[in-house]
C-alpha cells in the first residue's frame, strides 16, 4: 500500500513529509541511544518480512503489512523505523519513492502508534491467555484499516480521478484485513507466551542511558 | 547471498562524492515533482537515461525497477482517462477515453520515470553503508543514521535465519496453503525472528557498552569534495535553473 513515485503533487508530498518529520522527531526523542539496536534489529526483521514473507491467498499471495505488530512492540519508534524501511524499499526495489517517502511513512507509521496506545496495555495485562490472540487481531485489523483510509485519503488529495484506484483496491484489501488480523493475532499470542518482555516498550524518560 | 545490493561499478558517476549525488537527486526529484510542464519532464527523462547510461546500470535490474513503477502507470492509463471528464480522444467498445485524462497520465508517467532513473543512477550506485556515512555528513539526525546503519548491517543475518527456519519447516513437511495452519506457522516464524532479534540486540548493546559506546560512531571514511564534484554541481545547477526558467516562463511546452 504505497503511493508510487511521481504521483503526489508538491503540496501533498510536502504535507506528508512535514507530518512524517514531526512523527520521526517524537519517535527519536522517545528512543535512547541504547535502544537503537533494539529498534534497528526489529526494523530489519520487518523489512525482511515485508519482502520475503508471502502468505498464500487464493491463487496468488499477499505480504503482510505488519504495522500493527510493529506499533505494539516499538511504540513511537515505529515511525522512524518505517521511514528507514520505506527508504530502503525505495532505494533497493523502487516500492514507493523518494518524493512520496513522507506520505508513505505517515500511512504506515501513524496507525502503528495508534495501535500501541489502544492495545499494548491490554496485551501486557491479558496477553498470556486468549487475550493475546484477540488483542493481536484487533491491532492488525485496526492498523490495516487506518492505513487504508490514510492511503486512500492521500491518493484522493493527489487527484480526485484516482478514486477509481481506491475503489479497485478496496476488494482485495477486504481479504487482506482478514489475513493481517489472523497473522498479527497468532504472532502476538506466540510472543506474549514465549517472550512477553517484547511488549514492554522502553520510553525515553526512564533509566539513565547515555543520551 | 545478499538482499542488499547496489549497482557496483567504476564509472565517472561512481567516482562522484556521494553527498553531492544525494543532494542533486533530491533537488532533481523536487523539480520534477513540482513541474507539470511536458517539455521539462521529457528533458528529465532524457537526463535520467543519460545518467543511467553513464553509470552503466545493469539492464535487467533497471528494467525490473522501471517495470514496478510502470505497472502502476499502466493501470493509471487504463482507468484514469475513462473517469476523467473532458473531451473524448477516442472510444473503445463505446468506452470514452478523455484526452485530458490521457495527458495527465502521460505527465505522471514521465515524472515517475525521470525520478526513478536519476535516483537509480545517482543514489542506487552508492554502497548503502557509505550512504549512511553521507547521511552523517549531511547532518541527518545521528539516531536516524544509526538506525539505518544497524538495519542494513543485520538484514542479511536475519535473511539467513529466515531461510534456515523455513528450511526446517519444509523438512517437517510444511506446505504453504491458504489455511489457518499456514498462517499460524508463518506468524510463529516471524515471531521467532523477532525474539531472536531482541535477544541479539541486547548482546550487541552489551558489547558496544564494553567498548565504550557513547552514542556516537566515529567516522573513518571522509569524503573529499573534488574538482569533478564541483563541475557536476555547476552542471546540475545550470540545468536545474534552465528547467526552472522554462517552467516559470512557460516556454518549450510540447503540448
The residue fraction in helices of chain A comes out at over 70%
Q: How much of the residues of chain B is beta strand, in percent?
A: under 5%
Q: What is the string of SSEs of chain B from the N terminus onward?
A: HHHEEHHHHH
What spatial form of chain A do the alpha-carbon principal axes imply? globular
- Low-confidence regions of chain B: none
Low-pLDDT regions of chain A: 206-211
SS summary, helix count of chain A? 6
Q: What's the number of extended β-strand segments of chain B? A: 2
In the sheet with the most strands of chain B, the strands line up as 1-2
N-end to C-end Cα span of chain A: 35 Å
Topology record:
The complex is a heterodimer of chains A (211) and B (255).
Chain A: H1 10-30, H2 36-52, E1 55-57, E2 60-62, H3 67-74, H4 78-93, H5 101-158, H6 163-194
Antiparallel strand pairs in A: 1-2
Helix pairs in contact in A: 1-4, 1-5, 2-4, 3-5, 4-5, 5-6
Chain B: H1 18-34, H2 38-54, H3 59-83, E1 88-92, E2 95-98, H4 99-122, H5 128-137, H6 142-171, H7 180-210, H8 227-249
Protein described:
Helices cover 72% and strands 3% of the residues of chain A. Chain A is mainly alpha-helical and 211 residues long. Chain A has one domain (10-198): Arp2/3 complex 21 kDa subunit ARPC3 (Orthogonal Bundle), CATH 1.10.1760. Chain A has a two-stranded antiparallel sheet. In chain A, α3 packs across α5 and α5 (101-158) packs antiparallel against α6. Chain A starts with 9 loop residues before the first helix and ends in a 17-residue tail after the last helix. The relative contact order of chain A is 0.18. In chain B, β1 and β2 form a beta hairpin. Chain B has 255 residues and is mainly α. Chain B starts with 17 loop residues before the first helix and ends in a 6-residue tail after the last helix. Classes of the chains: A mainly alpha (211), B mainly alpha (255). The interface between A and B is large, with 74 and 86 residues.
Amino acid at each position: 500500500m504505497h503511493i508510487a513515485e511521481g504521483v503526489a503533487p508538491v503540496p501533498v508530498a510536502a504535507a506528508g513529509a512535514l507530518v512524517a518529520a514531526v512523527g520521526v522527531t517524537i519517535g527519536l526523542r522517545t528512543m535512547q541511544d541504547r535502544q537503537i539496536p533494539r529498534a534497528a534489529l526489529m526494523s530489519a526483521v520487518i523489512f525482511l518480512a515485508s519482502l520475503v514473507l508471502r502468505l498464500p491467498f487464493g491463487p496468488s499471495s499477499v505480504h503482510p503489512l505488519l504495522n500493527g505488530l510493529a506499533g505494539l512492540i516499538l511504540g513511537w519508534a515505529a515511525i522512524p523505523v518505517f521511514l528507514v524501511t520505506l527508504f530502503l524499499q525505495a532505494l533497493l526495489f523502487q516500492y514507493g519513492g523518494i518524493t512520496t517517502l513522507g506520505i508513505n511513512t505517515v500511512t504506515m507509521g501513524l496507525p502503528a502508534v495508534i495501535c500501541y496506545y489502544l492495545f499494548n496495555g491490554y496485551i501486557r495485562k491479558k496477553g498470556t491467555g486468549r487475550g493475546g490472540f484477540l488483542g493481536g487481531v484487533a491491532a492488525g485489523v485496526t492498523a490495516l484499516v487506518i492505513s487504508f483510509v490514510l492511503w486512500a485519503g492521500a491518493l484522493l488529495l493527489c487527484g480526485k480521478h484516482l478514486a477509481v484506484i481506491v475503489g479497485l483496491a478496496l476488494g482485495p484489501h477486504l481479504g487482506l484485513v482478514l489475513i493481517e488480523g489472523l497473522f498479527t493475532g497468532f504472532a502476538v499470542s506466540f510472543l506474549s507466551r514465549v517472550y512477553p518482555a517484547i511488549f514492554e516498550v522502553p520510553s525515553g524518560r526512564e533509566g539513565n542511558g547515555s543520551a | 547471498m545478499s538482499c542488499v545490493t547496489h549497482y557496483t561499478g567504476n564509472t565517472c558517476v561512481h567516482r562522484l562524492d556521494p553527498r553531492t549525488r544525494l543532494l542533486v537527486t533530491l533537488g532533481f526529484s523536487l523539480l520534477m515533482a513540482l513541474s507539470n510542464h511536458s517539455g521539462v519532464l521529457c528533458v528529465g527523462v532524457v537526463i535520467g537515461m543519460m545518467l543511467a547510461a553513464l553509470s552503466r546500470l545493469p539492464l535487467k535490474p533497471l528494467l525490473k525497477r522501471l517495470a514496478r513503477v510502470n505497472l502502476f502507470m499502466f493501470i493509471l492509463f487504463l482507468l484514469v482517462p475513462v473517469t476523467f471528464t473532458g473531451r473524448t480522444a477516442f472510444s473503445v467498445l463505446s468506452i470514452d477515453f478523455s484526452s485530458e485524462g490521457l495527458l495527465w497520465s502521460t505527465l505522471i508517467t514521465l515524472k515517475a520515470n525521470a525520478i526513478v532513473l536519476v535516483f537509480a543512477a545517482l543514489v542506487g550506485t552508492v554502497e548503502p553503508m557509505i550512504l549512511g556515512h553521507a547521511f552523517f555528513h549531511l547532518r541527518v539526525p545521528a539516531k536516524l543514521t544509526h538506525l539505518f546503519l544497524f538495519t542494513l548491517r543485520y538484514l542479511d543475518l536475519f535473511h539467513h535465519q529466515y531461510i534456515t527456519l523455513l528450511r526446517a519447516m519444509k523438512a517437517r513437511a510444511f506446505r504453504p496453503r491458504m489455511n489457518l495452519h499456514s498462517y499460524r506457522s508463518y506468524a510463529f516464524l516471524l515471531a521467532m525472528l523477532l525474539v531472536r532479534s531482541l535477544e541479539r540486540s541486547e548482546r550487541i548493546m552489551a558489547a558496544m557498552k564494553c567498548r565504550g559506546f557513547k552514542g556516537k560512531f566515529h567516522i573513518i571514511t571522509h569524503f573529499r569534495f573534488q574538482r569533478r564534484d564541483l563541475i557536476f554541481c555547476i552542471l546540475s545547477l545550470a540545468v536545474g535553473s534552465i528547467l526552472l526558467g522554462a517552467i516559470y516562463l512557460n516556454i518549450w511546452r510540447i503540448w
